[in-house]
Amino acid sequence: MTVTQTTPEATGIGAIIEVETGAMAHGGHCVARHEGRVVFVRHAIPREQVRVVLTEAEPGARFWRGDVVEVLRGSEFRRIHQWKLADSLRAHASGRLPVGGAEFGHIVVHHQRRLKAQVFRDTVARIAGAALEPEVLRAGPEDEPTGQHWRTRNAFAVNPHGHIAMHAHRSAVLLPVRNMPLGVPALDALALWDWDLTGAARVDVATPADGSRPLVLVTPTPQTLADEARLGRLRSRVRQAANATETEISSGFAVPGPKRHSPARIERITGRTWVQESVDPERGAARTFRVTGDGFWQVHRHAPATLVDAVLEDADARPGQIVADLYAGAGLFSAFLADAVGEQGRVYSVEAARQASKDARRNLLSLPQAGVLNGPTDKVLGSWLKEPDRPASGGGLEGRALDTVVLDPPRAGAGRRVVERILALAPGRVVYVSCDPASFARDLAWLREGGYEVERSRVIDLYPDTHHLESVTLLRPAAEVATATR
Ligand SMILES: C[S@@+](CC[C@H](N)C(=O)[O-])C[C@H]1O[C@@H](n2cnc3c(N)ncnc32)[C@H](O)[C@@H]1O
């Protein structure tokens, strides 16, 4: 991208404008105004005077986007970005765009949390019309004050030279990566930057928080997949690199399915096709989990235990109760909820991804009160409403009412149909775990219209140095919340 000279009337991509930044908005940018138009400014902090290079600037567009390239009056909460590749100031100074994924790295961590709580409050007020005052929690007891070294899951592209790389933000440009400061130290130990991955398109790495054997999953390019000889050479190079590392590591190919969204087939190269994860929450006994391939697992090394504690506290599950764990992945919450309800109770672990449900079955094997239902949430809830007396052996509720619904949907949220079905099932508690305040707020509005009210809400900083946030919110029928808080 070329950066043009500053002029007062400068417009267009690459032009530089000067603005004063307003509030932090959902998405990680500050809202600013330039000649009456809204500009979303990344790498800023509210109430700064900055120069911004425009990165999206269609003349007729309602808003433009830009990155800070110079700070004229900085916030007291600004610090030097600790990852050169993601630092907007150094990136633009050397004529390139910053990589995405650490867009809050220039803000001291305690202020990042304050901004995330403000974004959560503002988003929920704007979309759901609810005034929430969330408690703000750190990801874990020994959080890094730098906001680094927490990611147990990392994904990289591979450039045409066979080196791991990352995309510049909102761009097809690939920048080679020599370190990943947000990754746990075990990621550095793999020295993936030195692997020759010619013929690969992407690498997904799982480095379990308990230090057990990592898994490096390589996705070959379509051209490599179509050529047995090329694929064989890539396989040999991966095997060689995996065997050359000091610690034992697993490796494999992720072979994309025939359709766009069909799951990848995992082909083992060294070790095994899964990782072990250990979770030791304060409110439950330690457990281990198996997660196959690039299956979903909470990314922050402390996230599983911290979320389990929050969910157990809000669900308050008692022996004999019936609990639905929706969007359950490999059964993380289901296992601890099943411990809480005991053998007289029942936990339904509902998950759409087939491999995740297979892992959940294995992870919940010692808990006969936990049943895994593989299928989309709306269908499972629909079948419960249609046939309330179906026996538990057939995935039914046996005519019993649900005491609690825990839901942890992907970024898109649960959606209207799922919310309506939860309302129709009328659980005593709804524990909503969310990684997106906007979709959460939309679903929350429907839950409130349906007669539920928020009893407690928490924002947990599971993604330091990024704008992302997690929230855990307990809802109960409005009349009960009013009584409890009176
Ligand atoms: C944010 S993850 C949560 C997983 C789990 N609660 C955990 O903490 O490990 C969301 C999960 O929802 C699953 N999922 C996505 N759409 C779904 C749907 N329509 N019905 C059921 N599960 C779905 C994904 O496969 C993923 O495992």
UniProtKB/TrEMBL annotation:
Report if keyword S-adenosyl-L-methionine is assigned.
yes
In which domain of life is the source organism classified? Bacteria
Q: What Gene3D superfamilies has UniProt attached to this entry? A: 2.40.50.1070, Nucleic acid-binding proteins (2.40.50.140), Vaccinia Virus protein VP39 (3.40.50.150)
Give GO BP annotations, semicolon-separated.
rRNA base methylation
GO molecular function terms attached to this record: rRNA (uridine-C5-)-methyltransferase activity
CDD domains, from UniProt? Answer: AdoMet_MTases
Protein family according to the UniProt entry: Belongs to the class I-like SAM-binding methyltransferase superfamily. RNA M5U methyltransferase family.
Q: What is the official name of this protein in its record?
A: tRNA/tmRNA/rRNA uracil-C5-methylase (TrmA/RlmC/RlmD family)
| Originating species | Micrococcus flavus
What taxonomic classification does the UniProt entry list for its organism? Bacteria, Bacillati, Actinomycetota, Actinomycetes, Micrococcales
